[in-house]
């Protein structure tokens, strides 16, 4: 009953109970008024702040939109990016050794990076403080490398750099979903530093979309995807910093420059626009340290597509050929030829029985237009001609003695013997019959036996030596080069060279046509007033 009475009491309060409860809540509210007031004051503070700056709100909105764009591009492109692992199981190395620093050990002599992009970075071999030791006549232990690539065909074709797979005995491809395959076929094009790898057995492969690299503009946002330092599927962002860059190590490509972080291991991976399209293949960096310093280079996607299509279809790249040696048009040479500006490709040599010879191209012509496309320099002309339809006539505009001339020229396939030309420097010893020009800072002699091997079929005189501070040295002329012409005068002997210089003025400029094992070039030597 007691329990029941309490229950009833709790549900049916008396008048006294109602009064006490009301009093309790009154006192509670009174005692909490300060807290409530202070709380209300604090709550009122944000309402006293100034409204957000509309410009800041808009900027944040745009920033978030850009972030979303980066996410979208990475989401589209990342699945098609692969890790490329190459392994060289055995390789013969030179047996030449030199005394080492530690206890007279024999160390490897030569450049272990020869044939790779690092060859130019370390021209003298391993840096100071690093040893590269191999047995003299035995096979070196296996070594492996890691690069990147991108799947461009559902049949299992990966596009990457030549230097990532060059010389490898085994190449494996690892997808982002963890699947791993072994390459069954590798086709390379060292001239453009591109390669395609084929693997079999892959199903439901994610495919990259190749975009139009010609539509890019400096300042466009891009992302680089790859495996830098073996950190798989890494994405970095930046912009297109430059276009049409030339690198000496790759003779047949003009590069995109970007400040998106590219590091060792990124080679072969894609450079992607905000639409998720591949617009370049990351290839090289400019660096004093070997790591990222804000300047990276990528092969444009349009060139990569053209090369990869040919490698897939033919196993090699068939380039167009005019049969000329060309070089940049230097300002002094342009003035000497009566040409305004310095845009164009200067013809320094015409190959016998070549398309250029048949079309009537002459030495010292300056090619300014091909198929309606402007030519600003040798590499531009090379790119246009290489991809031009072969066996058909093309219009080519040249400046000859300062006047435009239009020629019709039929592009032919590049002869295999000229596809890759070696380079080197052959030193010609001093002969008894020499001529020295103090004005030019150069001494020449007749072709000797060694020079005849290097320049078979070409007349001229060989450079014996150059003054280190002379005009010839400044212009890049070195011992072993063959001087073929002074101005337009052919040179066959030392006396020809001496007589030709009499008619020239060092103040107005002396134009020399010189030849190296790689071909002809025109050099202007002029005394500064």
Can you put this structure into words, describing what you see?
It is a single chain. The protein has 529 residues and is of the alpha+beta class. It folds into 3 domains: 186 residues, Thrombin, subunit H, CATH 2.40.10; 99 residues, PDZ domain (Pdz3 Domain, Roll); 91 residues, Roll (Pdz3 Domain), CATH 2.30.42. 24% of the residues lie in helices and 31% in strands. It contains 13 helices and 30 strands. The strands form 6 sheets. The chain has a 7-stranded antiparallel β-sheet. Strands 24, 25, 26, 27, 28, 29 and 30 form a 7-stranded antiparallel β-sheet that branches. Strands 10-11-12-15-14-13 form a 6-stranded antiparallel barrel. A hairpin with a 2-residue loop joins strand 27 and strand 28. The N terminus is likely disordered.
Short description:
This protein has 529 residues and is α+β, with helices and mostly antiparallel strands.
Topology readout:
Blueprint: H1 2-11, H2 15-31, H3 33-48, H4 54-77, E1 81-88, E2 97-99, E3 106-108, H5 118-121, E4 143-153, E5 157-161, H6 162-165, E6 170-174, E7 180-182, E8 185-189, E9 194-198, E10 221-226, E11 234-247, E12 250-258, E13 270-272, E14 278-285, E15 296-300, H7 301-314, E16 320-321, E17 324-328, H8 331-336, E18 345-350, H9 355-359, E19 366-370, E20 373-374, H10 378-386, E21 393-400, E22 403-410, E23 412-413, E24 435-437, E25 442-445, H11 449-454, E26 461-466, H12 471-474, E27 482-486, E28 489-490, H13 494-502, E29 510-516, E30 519-525
């Amino acid at each position: 009953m007691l329990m029941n009475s309490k229950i009833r009491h709790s549900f049916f309060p008396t008048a006294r109970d109602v009064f006490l409860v009301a009093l309790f809540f009154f006192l509670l509210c009174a005692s909490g008024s300060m807290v409530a007031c202070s709380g209300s004051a604090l709550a009122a503070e944000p309402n006293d702040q100034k409204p957000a700056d509309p410009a800041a709100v808009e900027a944040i909105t745009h920033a978030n939109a850009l972030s979303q764009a980066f996410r979208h591009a990475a989401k589209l492109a990342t699945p098609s990016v692969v890790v490329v692992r190459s392994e060289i199981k055995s390789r013969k190395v030179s047996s030449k050794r030199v005394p080492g620093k530690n206890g007279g050990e024999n160390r490897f002599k030569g450049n272990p990076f020869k044939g790779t992009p690092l060859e130019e970075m370390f021209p003298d071999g391993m840096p100071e403080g690093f040893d590269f030791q191999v047995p003299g006549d035995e096979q070196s232990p296996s070594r492996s490398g890691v690069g990147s690539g991108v799947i461009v065909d559902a049949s299992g074709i990966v596009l990457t750099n030549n230097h990532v797979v060059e010389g490898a005995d085994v190449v494996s491809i690892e997808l982002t979903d963890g699947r791993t395959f072994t390459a069954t076929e590798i086709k390379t094009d060292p001239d453009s530093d591109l390669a395609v790898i084929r693997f079999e057995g892959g199903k439901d492969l994610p495919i990259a979309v190749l975009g139009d690299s010609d539509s890019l503009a400096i300042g466009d946002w891009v992302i680089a995807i790859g495996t830098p330092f073996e950190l798989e599927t890494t994405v970095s962002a930046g912009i297109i910093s430059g276009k049409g860059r030339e690198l000496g190590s790759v003779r047949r490509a003009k590069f995109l420059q970007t400040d998106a972080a590219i590091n060792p291991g990124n080679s072969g991976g894609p450079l992607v626009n905000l639409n998720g399209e591949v617009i370049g293949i990351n290839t090289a960096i400019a660096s004093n340290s070997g790591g990222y310093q804000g300047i990276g280079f990528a092969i444009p996607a349009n060139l990569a597509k053209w090369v990869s299509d040919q490698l897939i279809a033919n196993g090699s790249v068939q380039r167009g050929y005019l049969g000329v040696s060309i070089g940049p048009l230097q300002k002094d040479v342009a003035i000497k030829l009566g040409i305004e500006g310095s845009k164009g490709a200067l013809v320094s040599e015409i190959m016998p029985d070549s398309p250029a010879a048949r079309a009537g191209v002459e030495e010292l012509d300056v090619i300014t237009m091909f198929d309606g496309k402007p030519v600003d320099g040798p590499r531009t002309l090379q790119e246009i001609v290489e991809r031009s339809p072969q066996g058909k006539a093309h219009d080519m505009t040249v400046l000859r003695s300062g006047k435009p001339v239009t020629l019709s020229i039929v592009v032919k396939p590049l002869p295999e013997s000229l596809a890759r030309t070696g380079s080197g420097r052959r030193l010609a010893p001093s002969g008894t019959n020499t001529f020295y020009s103090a004005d030019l800072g150069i001494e020449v002699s007749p072709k000797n036996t060694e020079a005849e091997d290097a320049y078979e079929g070409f007349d001229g005189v060989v450079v014996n030596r150059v003054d280190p501070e002379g005009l010839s040295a400044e212009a890049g002329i070195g011992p072993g080069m063959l001087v073929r012409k002074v101005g337009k005068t052919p040179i066959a002997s030392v006396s020809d060279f001496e007589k030709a210089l009499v008619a020239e003025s060092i103040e107005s400029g002396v134009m020399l046509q010189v030849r190296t094992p790689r071909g002809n070039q025109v050099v202007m030597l002029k005394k500064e007033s």
